[in-house]
Amino acid sequence: MKCKTCAAKAVIETRRHNAAFCTGCFCTHVERQVQKTVDTEKMLSKDDRILVAVSGGKDSFTLWEALHRLGYSTTGYHIVLGIGDYSPLAREKVEAYAKGQGLPLIITDLKEEYDFGIPELALHTPRVPCSACGLSKRYVMNRTALEEGFTVLATGHNLDDAASTLLGNLLHWQTEQLGRMRPAMEATHAKLVKTVKPLIRLTERETLAYTMLRGIDYHEDECPNAVGATSLLYKDILNQLEHASPGVKQSFYLGFLKKGRTAFAAHSDGITLKECEVCGQATTTETCAFCRMMEQARRRAASRNP
Amino acid sequence: MKCKTCAAKAVIETRRHNAAFCTGCFCTHVERQVQKTVDTEKMLSKDDRILVAVSGGKDSFTLWEALHRLGYSTTGYHIVLGIGDYSPLAREKVEAYAKGQGLPLIITDLKEEYDFGIPELALHTPRVPCSACGLSKRYVMNRTALEEGFTVLATGHNLDDAASTLLGNLLHWQTEQLGRMRPAMEATHAKLVKTVKPLIRLTERETLAYTMLRGIDYHEDECPNAVGATSLLYKDILNQLEHASPGVKQSFYLGFLKKGRTAFAAHSDGITLKECEVCGQATTTETCAFCRMMEQARRRAASRNP
Lengths: 306, 306
Known about the structure:
Oligomer: homodimer
């Protein structure tokens, strides 16, 4: 198999593009896909100060590496979740990468700054770990981006993530969520930062290959809490469809952006945001969901360890 | 396991209803599901003269049996497709059932009345067998219903059929088809008959069980042309989801009818129908797709066997 671009020996085949690439041309191809997404969805400009969410996995390293190579001004942002052996290793990989590249990095340790890591939140509130984690990450990412003066927050959601979220929302006809599914979300309130997902044209397999071919030392483990997650079933389902019909995953998600999304736009209109009476961040309720979770955790922890 | 209704020994469990039934109560349950669908979607009245499409398989026998037992005025309609050993056996089963029940039956033999069965249409036109078959059945069902003075045409599409069609239309964002997906389609033109799908609340497994428990001698074979059909992949995918989360297949399809369908309604508006210049049936083009296929088959067949 030869590289589609330079005819050198290919190292990876991408069936949905009906193409194969050598190491160098594949990395260029990935970065061009990122640039194309950034341009098509008007995600970023070279003047933006971009906070890049970096977990230490293949997706977030692909995002940081590609945006940096494409000439954007990036700062990494890592959240220490406090999950067993998983979190310390993730932090190590992120710090090593930032140091090696000479790129700025901000770290928030949930337990240090907010008293509770994910395991404690799962213990002291009714939320399952993935729910507590998602809420915490969305909250501290947005808050940090605003407080540190960044204009955009970039996250490493890939095509598999986006397509499986879309499938889940369609299976349950979550029309409000469908209306809000945008790879670039402009800030609709002074306390919200613009968020972008520049990897939605890349599959998990492609971000994995890019990370490896760029020689980045990433955190290989799945989070131990993800075992049995519905999103993994949806990803498996979509991979079966992709195997039978290469390209269907991409046309499903990009087709939604082009033709489906507008059908649900009306469902997500008319949401009024205000400032949380505790922390001042944007919320639809009096006290935001994060502050309510934290208050609940503090009360339960105190009653259990008086 | 005991019957949910009468506490007799259960013969079938339906996980999504969290219930089990004995033979009699299961059959009643199935017929009530049909009645509920008929009522909810305003499909039929007791004054309707209903033409029931009967292939000889489990779904169409469930439909005919249930509608007859519910007191509707039904006539069976069987199309002889001319497919190998499959079609003669199907016809036998349908004729035996109609005779046993003393119910009227109309038969159209495609090859006798239109010169070509499905194998010849697949041979002499660019269409694959399933495409030629679907087009032919839709055409002759509608035409026969009109010519014989029926007010409604009922077909045996079940929940698995409806959900897999929905999944396929969503994967490819066929917004026009999505807007037209209705279990009851009122006649929008003088040359169209109203069509209804009263089995969309029943799974394949349930129509199979009903047919067996009612002691109906049905045609067990899948059509030999269906092997490898995409719809079978979609059904398998939906069964995997159903296994992980009982009820998701039904909530996916019924949720679409309730919340998704309206989002696409605009996409299917504004289609102007006229009468085919050859046969006079409703069409969007000068000559309808069926007449064009037949003309093509006649020309090719003549040039091959001059």
